[in-house]
Amino acid sequence: MEVRPPYLIFLGDAPDDLTAKTGHGIVNWRPQLALAQSRLPQCKADLGIPEMSPQEAASAGARTFVIGTVNFGGVIPPEWTGTIVSALEAGMDVASGLHTPLESIAPIAEAAERAGAKLLNVRHTNRVFKTGTGVKRSGKRLLTVGTDCSIGKMFTSLSIERDLRQLGVSADFRASGQTGILIAGRGVAVDAVVADFIAGAAEWLSPSADEDHWDVVEGQGSLFHPAFAGVSLGLLHGTQPDAIVVCHEPTRKTLLKTEIPMPSIEDVIEMTLRAGRVVNRDIRCVGVSLNTCQLSGTETTRLIDETSARLSLPVTDPAKFGVRTITERLLGG
Amino acid sequence: MEVRPPYLIFLGDAPDDLTAKTGHGIVNWRPQLALAQSRLPQCKADLGIPEMSPQEAASAGARTFVIGTVNFGGVIPPEWTGTIVSALEAGMDVASGLHTPLESIAPIAEAAERAGAKLLNVRHTNRVFKTGTGVKRSGKRLLTVGTDCSIGKMFTSLSIERDLRQLGVSADFRASGQTGILIAGRGVAVDAVVADFIAGAAEWLSPSADEDHWDVVEGQGSLFHPAFAGVSLGLLHGTQPDAIVVCHEPTRKTLLKTEIPMPSIEDVIEMTLRAGRVVNRDIRCVGVSLNTCQLSGTETTRLIDETSARLSLPVTDPAKFGVRTITERLLGG
Q: What is residue B142's three-state secondary structure?
């Protein structure tokens, strides 16, 4: 799945900036891809980049119209259709991370057909993968894993990629979910792959590389989540990581959309290392990433210090303090 | 996925009885479903049931023409097309566990269309599943798990179902793979489900039931196999088993199609119980099923005794000694 840059990022009628999180993610992590934004009149989100119509953006070189808004239920509302059709008529591809396939909306399918443009539903995949082999690949891999879903794995992975590059280390973020794919411009939504091929898709996602190159693979789900653990385990086996970083949200009490208590960070480390040894005997945990947005400054500092002392690992909140302690541990041996 | 009985079982040009293993499985485990067999002239396999042409079988009440042969690569050879078309013209559905979708062969697709008959590719699934919930269901469940793929999980599950029924216990085999589905006449090929829905499909497969009913769920893959562990874990979480039985082949040195050493039975018990506790705190191992077809009688007895003493569990080879020691442990508490 490849999304051609640069992008015109469409925010639709997003009522706030949180709803436009895909757009903000692109501007934050890949500003060079974000040529301009396009918004409907009632939109309250703003990416702080130039405003252009689809025609203006296409003339300025934009190649893909990216839907940068995540709305409830993942549907494409009828009010967006006119703008999406204009983008196709202006010659751009259209990329969406929403559940509704773009081609299921007749005017969009017809406009794409007329223009010979691509409709990219990054949440789905048509690619045929092989089953996993477990054969060791060259290069190095880090996988972010979580005590739960939606807990900061993408943000942590992008933070580590950025920090490694700042340290002069060859590193690539490898996207395994729809938002990550739109940010990186490529990747595979592993939860949309047929079950038999999860590990094979993960092997494809982080291929053989130079010995000193790090692929930073975005994790999915949690080995402890009753709905998504299969995806997490397939991704772990296919990635065959040398290093893992555990992501956690300290105020969450139960696993997403369940009444099952959260596992401890220790549980996740032990289970991940144990399962990961099947494909990489040298797998190790190099840090913990806490999402402390619900905590005060004092609470955050105390929790980080306590957790770090308890686990003898670097612990940080990437959004507040960066990830240098983790990358130093990673590169230090 | 429902396959309507009774069946005309088609063996094609199977060179031996091993190739006709699906047909033999149906006759062995569900003789009441097997009305007759149909074979091409060069066929060397024999199910020991009446021989009928598609027309004769349809007149005698057969409702589904089941392909009972597993051939290398899972393709449907051109020599089979004529007989399959005759079955459709005689008014039967056609069911196949092979990789090639039946409708990909034009004369078969056209004949099904003309006859208004169903083409059932049990290895694929069109059903839309929900994501797993982890919510506890009523009734009891046993899951067979393996140190590896293709190690006797289906055979063990069917043996346990049969033995429980002989003991007067309400029990149902729940098929999770294509051969099992053709034997049971229903089920879901969990490895063909989209990754996000593995656990949800497993929850659907063994629904709420009477408190004293046992669903015996056919396991898939192995938590230690680098290609298929995601399927195994999703199936474990969705099944939320009260009991597991570990299947093992003692002479196998490396995991199927890999160079990775086999895990020990202890490894599999520990990992399965640990992962299974997320959805069922009372999960326990009630026995070990060994496939000892490569061993002599003396070797088999010694290995069973040693393994049983080491693990303090009932250990048996279902094909040689049945599974009564396991069902007694299961029901004994």
A: strand
C-beta atoms of A258 and B133 within 8 A: yes
Q: CB of A256 within 8 A of CB of A225?
A: yes
Residue range A140-332 in CATH 3.40.50.300: yes
Q: Which of residues 255-284 of B touch A (CB under 8 A)?
A: 255, 257-260, 263, 271, 274-275, 278-279
**Which one of A192, A195, A199 has the shortest CB-CB distance to B190?**
A195
The CA distance from B205 to the nearest CA of chain A, in Å, is 15
* Inter-residue contact B219 to B232 (CB < 8 Å): yes
How do residues A24-51 score in pLDDT, each as one tens digit? 999 999 999 999 999 999 999 999 999 9
A184: nearest Cα among A29, A20, A43: A29
CATH classification number, B7-121, choose in 3.30.565.10, 3.40.50.450, 3.10.20.70, 3.40.50.720: 3.40.50.720
- Say how many CB pairs under 8 Å bridge A and B: 138
Strands (DSSP E) contained in A44-193 are: 64-67, 93-96, 119-121, 140-146, 171-174
Whether A196 and chain B come into contact, CB under 8 Å, resolves to yes
What is the spatial order of strands in the sheet that A284-290 belongs to? A171-174, A214-217, A140-146, A243-248, A284-290, A315-316
Handedness of CA A196, A197, A198, A199 (dihedral sign): positive
d(CA B307, CA A167): 53
Structure tokens at A215: 């692929």
Tell me the residue ranges of DSSP E strands in chain A: 7-12, 34-39, 64-67, 93-96, 119-121, 140-146, 171-174, 214-217, 243-248, 284-290, 315-316
Could you report the predicted ipTM of this complex, rounded to two decimals? 0.89
Check if the beta carbon of residue B107 is closer than 8 Å to that of residue B180.
Answer: no
**A86 or B98, which is more confident?**
A86
Q: Cβ of A74 under 8 Å from any chain B Cβ?
A: no
Report the relative pairing of strands B243-248 and B284-290 from DSSP bridges: parallel
Q: Is there a common fold for A7-121 and A140-332?
A: yes
Q: Is the pLDDT confidence value at A175 over 70?
A: yes
Cβ contact, residue pair B230, A131, below 8 Å: no
Cα–Cα distances (Å) from B183 to A22, A215, B5, B96, in that order, read 47, 45, 10, 12
Other beta carbons less than 10 A from residue A206's beta carbon: 25
Write out the two tokens for A39: 């918004």
Locate B96 and state its tokens.
């196949």
Q: How far is A191 from chain B (nearest CA, A)?
A: 5
The per-residue pLDDT for B333 is 58
Q: Give the amino acid at A52.
A: M
Domain ranges of chain A: 7-121, 140-332
pLDDT in tens, B178-221: 999 999 999 999 999 999 999 999 999 999 999 999 999 999 99
